[in-house]
Every structure is written in structure tokens, then in C-alpha cells.
Amino acid sequence: MLDQTDRRILEELAQNSRITMKELGERVHLTGQAAAARVAKLEDNGVIEGYTIKVNQAKIGCLMHAFITIFTKTVQHEPFLSFIKTQEGHVLRNYKISGDGCYLLECRFPSNEVLDDFLVQLNEHANYKISMVIKKQ
């Protein structure tokens, strides 16, 4: 079970995973060595699964942000899932969902033309409903 200090450590690492253990310790009222030991324990217990970066998609040319609800055509989802694996440059996240649809894709595209090409290929495997992001709040 996580205590309050572990939760604070996770909050701090979520804000900046490159923080030094000394600075992390200061922020959660531990020594750097104690903070490092806590982080190692969180990693060993699988609470922390890995570290990542947050990429500004607009700055790398992917200005179009879309959520695509997927309606598979058959109970065999493998062709769709295989296609999605080839589209890692556009598909940020793929969620298996219940309710309206089978999957929900979060995608980024540099242009309408690239989006259209993606949708044409996608339609070989599934039907879809697309929602475009206008503004992030």
C-alpha cells in the first residue's frame, strides 16, 4: 500500500521524471538517499513501470488531433490490431472500450491528406466515427 510520501514522490516524478534524487528528497521531506530508495522500491513493486517524455505534437508538425471510435466489422479483431501496430506514427493510444464502439484511438496527423489516407486504410478493417479536437482546455 502506498503512503502519503510515496504518493508525493509519484506526483513529483509525474511532473518531472528527470528530477535529481536530492531535489526529490527535499520536495518530499526526505534525504536524497531515502528518496532514491523509495523510488527503487516503487520500481521493484511495479508501481513505476517506466519513464517517458511528453512530446509537443504541434511542434513536430502533427497539428490535427483526433479521437476515432472504432466499430469492427467482425469478431476477429486481429486484422484491425495488426494495422494499428503499423500506424504508430499516427496512433498515440489505442483503448479497448465498452459502450459506443469497440476501440477508441487517439491520433495526430500533420494534414487532412494524411488523415484521409489513414481513414481509407482503416476502413478496410473497421468502420469508424471521428471527433476532431478544436481546443485543449
List the helices and strands and how they pair.
Blueprint: H1 4-15, H2 21-27, H3 32-44, E1 64-72, H4 78-85, E2 91-96, E3 103-109, H5 112-122, E4 126-132
Antiparallel strand pairs: 1-3, 1-4, 2-3
Helix pairs in contact: 2-3
GO cellular component, one term: cytosol
InterPro entries: ArsR-like_HTH, AsnC-type_HTH_dom, Dimeric_a/b-barrel, Tscrpt_reg_AsnC-like, Tscrpt_reg_AsnC/Lrp_C, WH-like_DNA-bd_sf, WH_DNA-bd_sf
Protein name: Lrp/AsnC family leucine-responsive transcriptional regulator
Description:
The chain has about 140 residues and is an alpha+beta fold. It has two domains: about 5-45, Orthogonal Bundle (Arc Repressor Mutant, subunit A); about 55-130, 2-Layer Sandwich (Alpha-Beta Plaits), CATH 3.30.70. It is about 35% helix and about 20% strand. The chain has five helices and four strands. The chain has a four-stranded antiparallel sheet with strand order 2-3-1-4, covered by helices on one side. It is elongated and about 55 Å long. The model has no long low-confidence stretch (mean pLDDT about 95). Pfam families: AsnC_trans_reg, HTH_24.
Uncertain spans, ≥5 residues at pLDDT below 50?
Answer: none
User: Which sequence of strands runs across the widest sheet?
Assistant: 2-3-1-4
User: How far is the N terminus from the C terminus?
Assistant: 33 Å
- SSE succession: HHHEHEEHE
Shape verdict: elongated
C-alpha Rg (nearest Å): 20 Å
Q: Structurally, how many domains make up the residues?
A: 2
Total number of helices = 5
* Helix/sheet category: alpha+beta
Portion in helices: 25-40%
Using the coordinates above, name the CATH class of the largest domain.
Alpha Beta
CATH architecture of the largest domain: 2-Layer Sandwich
Strand content: 15-25%
List how many beta strands DSSP finds.
4
The largest pleated sheet is described as: 4 strands, antiparallel
Keywords: DNA-binding, Transcription, Transcription regulation
Pfam family, one: AsnC_trans_reg
Domain HTH asnC-type: 2-63
GO cellular component, one term: cytosol
